[in-house]
Write a structure and sequence with these properties.
The chain is of the alpha/beta class and 419 residues long. The chain has 17 helices and ten strands. Strands 1-2-4-3-5-6-7-8 form an eight-stranded mixed beta sheet, sandwiched between helices.
């Protein structure tokens, strides 16, 4: 009997691990078990970080922290690194633009007398995590620089918990204005007619907001030629869009987690999460949310019929204290670019919007693409039926997804043809 105990314990442990790892996923996801393992790892990391926070050791954000690049600034691979993403010949340097730390990637091609493309990139991470040095961001920017003969400036904006809105936006805007200056463009031999702004997730939010401001600022002589937004987060009024409900339990960005990140970014009380999940913060009784403003994020009108399906807008009869008291930045277009007026959108550069079917932010991207098109802006919407939030970053070993590689290739191809 005693000999059976190791077998019993092994079976029980295996069952427990399998139960922890396994989560039901949509059939369209091509590598489900790999995503389950990634999700389990992220959950474990968040649980341990929250425990340390509860014990008073450190803020949970700092415990999770950014994933630093395995490459040094000059592109040399450190001993023991797998070297993923390293592109020999791309010069990498850490500088500041308007006092904001920026990592610059210069391509080996070109040279004196040869103008290159320019691209300003804002990394994702929900305004809290991530870094310009993160391996996925670093690998992406090296590829863009090398393959497209582009000078890439990846901004290391300040993040939560040290700051919240509007500081990350203001950091990105200041760096963008400096990058677009005649002096900087000339220093890096960048063609002023071929400069892009881009970002993923919360970085896509920042890229859209910065693109809007630069477009209407008469004091900025050089404008962005294009904007490339990767599954951007663009509004915090409605957390009951079809994609929020359809994908609320799909990793790696769960619906309650996205609400939590918005509360953090806007400096609101985290205890408001249950109210925001049922849209109590944006009920029809809030006088600040006019019918015109609400129409700018009305998925029942802006989404293609295929994605509305049988969903109905959530009707909230009684709201909370009001957006002004809960989160002063809730209706600020610098935080929610989807709420910008048509006169602003009409001045924005042509756009690339990448969306994923299995992503709570899918409808944010769809709605913004539609509103830009309605304003007369040329828009390309690349939609990945087998995509999920974060897949664009999963391109470096040991966490590589085929859909991530295809998405990055589509992004590079669009930039090649449009920038």
């Amino acid at each position: 009997m005693m000999r059976l105990w190791p077998v019993v314990v092994t079976v029980l442990l295996t069952a427990a691990v399998a139960r922890y790892v396994y989560i039901p996923l949509p059939d369209t996801i091509q590598e489900p078990w790999k995503l389950m393992m990634v999700a389990a790892g992220l959950r474990t990391s968040m649980h341990l970080a929250s425990l340390k926070d509860w014990l008073g050791c450190d803020h949970y954000i700092k415990s999770v922290g950014p994933s630093p690049s395995s490459e040094s600034a000059d592109g040399a691979t450190k001993a023991g690194s797998d070297g993923g993403g390293v592109v020999p010949g791309v010069k990498v340097s850490d500088i500041t633009l308007a006092g904001i730390p920026v990592r610059v990637y210069e391509p080996p091609a070109g040279g004196e007398g040869h103008l290159r493309r320019g691209l300003m990139y804002f990394h994702g991470g929900d305004w809290a995590f991530g870094s310009a040095e993160r391996r996925s961001s670093d690998a992406l920017n090296r590829m863009v620089s090398d393959e497209l003969n582009t000078v890439v400036a990846s901004v290391e904006y300040r993040r939560y918990p040290e700051v919240h809105f509007p500081v990350p936006y203001l950091d990105c805007l200041a760096a963008a204005k400096h990058f677009l200056s005649t002096e900087v463009l000339a220093k890096y031999a960048i063609d002023p007619e071929r400069v892009a702004v881009s970002g993923a997730s919360s970085g896509g939010n920042l890229a859209a907001a910065v693109a809007q401001e630069i477009s209407i600022d008469d004091g900025v002589s050089v404008k962005f030629s294009v904007q490339a937004l990767i599954y951007p987060a663009l509004q915090a009024l409605d957390f009951n869009t079809p994609s929020y409900l359809q994908n609320q339990d799909v990793p790696v960005l769960y619906r309650p987690l996205m609400v939590r990140f918005w509360l953090q970014y806007l400096g609101a009380d985290p205890s408001l999460q249950p109210q925001w999940l049922v849209n109590n913060h944006s009920s029809s009784h809030h006088p600040a949310i006019t019918p015109e403003l609400r129409a700018r994020s009305d998925w029942a009108v802006l989404l293609p019929p295929k994605y509305r399906r049988n969903h109905k807008p959530l009707v909230v009869e009684r709201g909370s204290q009001g957006p002004a008291k809960e989160a002063p930045g809730l209706l600020d277009v610098r935080a929610s670019p989807l709420l910008a007026g048509p006169e602003v959108l009409a001045k924005c550069p042509r756009a690339y919007v990448l969306t994923c079917e299995n992503d709570v932010l899918r409808d944010d991207g769809f709605m913004y693409a539609r509103r830009l098109q309605d304003a007369g802006v040329t828009v390309t919407n690349d939609h990945y039926e087998d995509g999920f939030h974060g897949c664009f970053s999963f391109i470096v070993w040991p966490v590589e997804f085929d859909v991530g590689k295809r998405a990055v290739r589509g992004y590079l191809t669009w930039l090649q043809n449009n920038l």
